[in-house]
Fold these 2 entries.
Entry 1:
Amino acid sequence: MRKEIAVIAAAALASFLASFLIAAVLLPSLTGGRITTVTTTLSVTSPQTEDEYLKSTETLLRRVVEWVEDFRGLELREEVEVIALTRSWVVEHWGKGFLNRTEVEIDEVLLKSLLMVPRDFNLTRFRIGFSGYTVAASSDHRIYVVREYFDPRNELRAGATLAHELTHVLQGEYFSTPKPSTSDEEAAIAALIEGDANLVSSTYLLEHGGKPFRMRESELTPLDALPFFPYIYGEPFVRYVYERRGWDGVNEMYENPPTSTAQVLHPEKYLEGWKPVKPDLPSPPGEGWRLLLRDTLGEYFVRQLIRAHLDSAAANRSAEGWLGDRVEIYEKDGLYLVRWKLVWEDGRELSEFLGAFEQVLEDAGARRSGEDLWSLEGERIRVQRVSENALLITIHFEANG
Ligand SMILES: [Zn+2]
């Protein structure tokens, strides 16, 4: 789940446009994951020539630049250039072009072995479809807008999109963030970046008579909710810090960004200096096994894992109290070995997760075949309590089982 989320998240749609996008994102969930068909109904009302389109975008941009500089308290150091793209171009070049197929295949093994998606699910297709919801993006001093979604004549919405992207340009000029080493850390840093941009664009909307749109986790499928984490929880997180410490406090976060989705979900933990633990896994499984992935999945991932089978309240409750996790995936002759150690704040929190996870296994059709052993077609799962507050999940998984 590492790189492609970063690319898509950086380039992805801004949540305030979600009245367009939420439909575009939610509909595929309702129609069985076929993302590509939905957007045909979304198109710009009447055609503008390329020239008119760019000219009105640039006029609007100049006004928004002034507002953003004033509100965010940072001045642009260089001119910003606008480039118009089409949706199909974005899917072709960013959706397909940026996709690391090997990583997607490994992520697919993880999601399938943890019973979050069905055996016949195709993650590559899902990720490429996702790129089709990009409204605008930025890189250095360029802002890209997608013609099917971005209409400069709708000044309120288009202005908010530009405010979001201009915040990204400012972030590039003034701040840098460390390279994340886990998926959990990557989602947390993205939440800071997107949350900052969304706080600016929400305020722009409010000050210009609009109403910010809130994307909600409960309205997304667990699989959609994963890449949308920065857009759902970034803004409340950044707002929490902004209201207590102002923009200086937000700016300082770039030097010491959150390292875990748990800090974003519980901003008070971040401000208290709380940090997750990094559990050790047992020694490697022996000869012939090839390590494919070593990662930390985080509280938010745990939540989606549970939510794929149980309700949101159960998911939130059982993911809370997460203190750290470590996952490894090995491969040998088409057989995968997944080892996932989870550490909880105390034994009670562990039991809460364990109870929910056993319900997930039952819901997925797994049968208990021993005290801590479960099996279903092509898969054996061992769930061991290795200490008062740590759990080790070991899965043998055949991709074609
Ligand atoms: Zn953004």
Entry 2:
Amino acid sequence: MKTPGKYSFGLGDRFGHQGEAQLKAIIEASKHGIEITPVWNKSNREHITIGTEPSDVRIEADMVTKNAGFKKDYFVDADHINFDTVDRFIESSDFFTIDVASYIGKKAEEAEIKEFVSSVKKYEGTLKIPGIKRSFNISREQIIQIAEKYLFAAFKAWDIFRKIEKIKGAGNFITEVSMDEVPVPQTPVEMFFILRMLASESIPVQTIAPKFSGRFNKGVDYVGDPQDFAAEFESDLMVIDFAIKEFGLPHDLKMSIHSGSDKFAIYPHIGSIIQKYGKGIHIKTAGTTWLEEVIGLAVSGGEALDFVKEIYYEALEKIDELSAPYSDVIDIRIDNLPLRGEVSGWDAVKFAASLRHISGNQNYNPDMRQLVHVAYKLAANKMDSFFRLLDKYENKVSESVYENIYFRHICRLFGIK
Ligand SMILES: [Zn+2]
């Protein structure tokens, strides 16, 4: 059976130019004793916006690993696929993020719900999950409610899983189940019964992505109390640990955090909690590599700086259109966006520092960063000039990508000094 290893990192590379720089960060971590399996992820939405195919991600991953002589495992993730979108991903992917969010809340048949409820009868009453101080009082009604909310989604996860398995064969791919793109976080008790549902559907889930409280806006830091997150994360970890033993789920089942990138405030908590229990983790970052490309072009100055400034001006004009598909995962304070007249006078250093996620820097502007993050479509419309500039200023661009992933993400998460 394929396994993502103890630590894995989801890398987004929307335009397919930064695989080498991303891999360099993974290789550097290994030199410091942290083995991370790289997983290149790209969602259907990103493919559609840019006009790429899932096979492009495979070609890039194969090429950069081959060129670097990287002999360890790596994966290509069909990110957030569902029954309708999975088909074109099957051949070239070997990691599938089965997104059941849109099926949550749809009811399974009465008889199916009844059957599930009676199959978990033994958990009614007081439920003690090792590692969690408080115990849970589970009523029949509560189980019925959970079944009404999640059982249908578990059935759909099975349908999607089978569709993939029929073509790829058992054990030849990683199965992730994601339910992060919903409004309300799952409670530990819900997680427990969801895992039971996946187990009874015989889905060999290896990573599971729950929804956590707080906001995980794209490309910027966590919004919420990191201590609350830590408590929630630790409980979920204990639930997973218990469910593996209790339901016979794959022993390497681990938590997947769809971070949306840059959740620096919670990285130290994640790091210390997984260390405490010796657990693994999959951290998925969003396509913020694109932002690093913009920063790399900005610091290159001249025509490259002009190009990214133009993208920003256009983004200001099209802010509603660009933000709409991402409304749940961005919070842009429009008043905080510098206008064209102001930005036109900025030099390379100022423009780059406004976008680079260094919170102590007085120029850093998270609103501008979020806007540029969702503006990648504008570069896709000028692909020829964009790619020409990426090639011409490759050194600065790949340096920016590498520094971001290695120093700001990996070092913080794994405590590399
Ligand atoms: Zn997600």
